[in-house]
Amino acid sequence: MTMNRKTILLCACAAFLGLMMLFSPATFIKVIIIAAGCACVVSGVLAFTGARKLIEDPVYSWCVTGRAILCIIVGALAVILPLAIAKTAWTVMLYILAVELLVSALAEVYTTLKLKEANIDCKFYWGEVIVSIAVSLVLFLMPAKIGSALIRIVGACILIASVALFIWEYRSNKGIDFTVETLDD
């Protein structure tokens, strides 16, 4: 039997993430801020170029345009400012990004309801609302002492889970054998 390569890669990535969260929560926070900033810019560009044209409603279009511009500006600031300014900027940017994600999620609820009224599939948008609110709540908790402790606890849990998954996969497959199978047509 062979061990699933995707599982090995998943375990390795999860173990790395867990170690980073456990031993360097400040670096993890910086990575999260930059990643969230990049995601905000992408979300803003996608909303500006596509989503605002889905419905012929001026209020909807204005709401999506405002949300898109806010996402692009705050996302760019989240990436650029902390790289140029000291530690205080990280904390300030973290709160600004958290507020922006919350405001963006509220605007997204309105626009998603308008899409639903127009019978347009909006499952993806509900997922974006949930992720925005969850990331916003995590960002609000991070600067406090409890945030650092929480990151370390989650990191330890991720590390333990990745090791446990690797051991379980290893035992269920009795070792690692990377053989290549060919399929004949």
Structure notes:
By secondary structure, the protein is mostly helical. It is built from 6 helices and no strands. The protein has helices spanning 5-23, 25-49, 58-84, 87-117, 123-141, 145-173. Helix 1 (5-23) packs antiparallel against helix 6 and helix 4 packs antiparallel against helix 5 (123-141). The longest helix has 31 residues, at 87-117. The radius of gyration is 21 Å and the shape is globular.
Note the topology:
Blueprint: H1 5-23, H2 25-49, H3 58-84, H4 87-117, H5 123-141, H6 145-173
- Reading the helices and strands in chain order gives HHHHHH
Q: What proportion of the residues form beta strands (DSSP E)?
A: under 5%
Rg result: 21 Å
Q: Roughly what percent helix?
A: over 70%
Shape: globular
Mean pLDDT: 80
Give the helix tally. Answer: 6
Please count the beta strands (DSSP E, at least 2 residues each). 0
Low-confidence stretches: none
First and last CA, distance: 23 Å
Q: Find the structural class using helix and strand composition.
A: mainly alpha
Q: Largest sheet at a glance? A: none
